[in-house]
Amino acid sequence: xxxxxxxxxxxxxxxxxxxxxxxxxxxxxxxxxxxxxxxxxxxxxxxxxxxxxxxxxxxxxxxxxxxxxxxxxxxxxxxxxxxxxxxxxxxxxxxxxxxxxxxxxxxxxxxxxxxxxxx
Length: 119
What we know:
It is a single chain. The chain is of the alpha+beta class. The mean pLDDT is 88. Helix content is 39%, strand content 18%.
């Protein structure tokens, strides 16, 4: 029996309940972990090192963490997830994002490489 070892990721959307446009509202991200775990990391960074120039931090401060809805948009191969993020966030400072989508952080890349090494 052959196992599929391709790494998967979730494309997620942090937004308010009344937001309807994933292209212009809220925050779009990619994670290879549970979305709730990634959201807690966003919250921890907000609590420990608030950045008044970060739109996501501003949203957390203005609306409160309990008002933020976490929506999974899809689960797919990691490279496909970053392609989707690039479509949804092609430019800097769209919605609550500061960076354009489609760029894997060095930490995420190293984490995936390490997990691949262990398998």
